[in-house]
């Protein structure tokens, strides 16, 4: 995963965008405009749909 990727929080399905990365911590801006730092294993990258 890299900055700019869309991700889903696996526990509740909330979607967001990665804005910063430090080791295995990802700073996410969520769809409700809340932001948080999350561990990589709690996130799943949203694959582009064609």
TrEMBL record:
It comes from the Bacteria. InterPro entries: SH3_12. This is 5'-3' exoribonuclease 1 SH3-like domain-containing protein. It comes from Cohnella cellulosilytica. Residues 2-43 form the 5'-3' exoribonuclease 1 SH3-like domain.
